[in-house]
Amino acid sequence: MSSSYPTPAASVETEIEVKKSRFIARTAKVTDRPAALAFVEQARQDFPDARHHCWAYLLGNPVSASSAAANDAGEPSGTAGKPILNVIQHKGVGDVIVVVIRYFGGIKLGAGGLVRAYSGVAEAAMSILPLAQAVAMRHVNISLDFSKEQLLRHWSEQYGAQVLQVDYTHQVAMQLSVPVAAMDALDAFCAAQGFTRQP
Q1: DSSP string for residues in 29-48
Q2: Of 23, 40, 141, 165, which has the fewest CB atoms closer than 10 Å, so is most exposed?
Q3: Mind listing the pLDDT tens digit of every residue in the chain (199 residues)?
Q4: pTM
């Protein structure tokens, strides 16, 4: 499994019209469920008179997502949220949400028409979405002697790891966020220095 994956580099909004119904798709980067739901709520506030605010999100690496959800928001079951999520999964983008705001135009589209419309506008938004590479990270705790703290800090800078927290007791306990791709190098470094690592 790749340790990096595409993620939104910016937010986009696009619109299509199907038989007088307006479908407005917004997409953005989110890294947890509260942020995703806040994005949906913002769409409701920006388009309060729209009939539906359907959405789907996928968090983490799309190959093995940590979380994914979809909501039809009043449309017939399976005609909105799931088609949006299918587009996200097909595009292979992680940490992303797509909200589709629908203004009903007076002509019923039927289940197949709704699936095509929601898929179509989600596809349009995802196709213009600028992407960046997100690096999969892992949190680890390492215990070490005071005299070797700078060695671990130097290693962290070299390998793109971030020091999240440091506690000083009889030893130094450091919590790091380490790129998954650097875990083997970290294990080798810890073994060579005599550090104790908890996963």
Answers
A1: E-SSHHHHHHHHHHHHHHST
A2: 165
A3: 456 789 999 999 999 999 999 999 999 999 899 999 999 999 999 999 999 999 999 998 888 888 999 999 999 999 999 999 999 999 999 999 999 999 999 999 999 999 999 999 999 999 999 999 887 788 899 999 999 999 999 999 998 888 999 999 999 999 998 888 889 999 999 999 988 888 6
A4: 0.74
Portions of the chain given CATH number 3.30.230.30: 4-133
Fold of 4-133: Ribosomal Protein S5; domain 2 (3.30.230)
Strand residue runs (E) in the chain = 4-8, 12-18, 21-29, 52-59, 67-71, 96-103, 131-135, 137-144, 162-168, 172-179, 196-198
> Which phi and psi (to 5°) does residue 59 adopt?
-110, 145
Residues of the chain with CATH 3.30.70.240: 136-198
